[in-house]
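Input chain follows. Return structure tokens only.
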Amino acid sequence: QVQLVESGGGSVQAGGSLRLSCAASTYTYNRYCLGWFRQAPGKERERIATISTAGSTSYADSVKGRFTISKDNAKNTLYLQMNSLKPEDTAMYYCASGRNSYCDGSVREWGQGTQVTVSS
């Protein structure tokens, strides 16, 4: 059974915004750290933002100040608001759950991914 389902990717011009969503099962949403990763062609997968079950957030330096991770408890949904997008943000974006309620970098499950393309 799929536990994480992303949506919201697409194409946008540099400087624009997109919001990604990740619908999680109640079990996953309430028990585990959730986060966003991305992988550009020819590059390693990069962890860009995480949020613990308690709401503590962390960001990669590459997105700090431009991206915001958040959760909607009523909808069991994780979001990534992406502002001031740059061409180098172009990548496949993945939602993931960790193995603990706190965020330690571990990954228990991946979503299927959603493509974000930023043109200059």
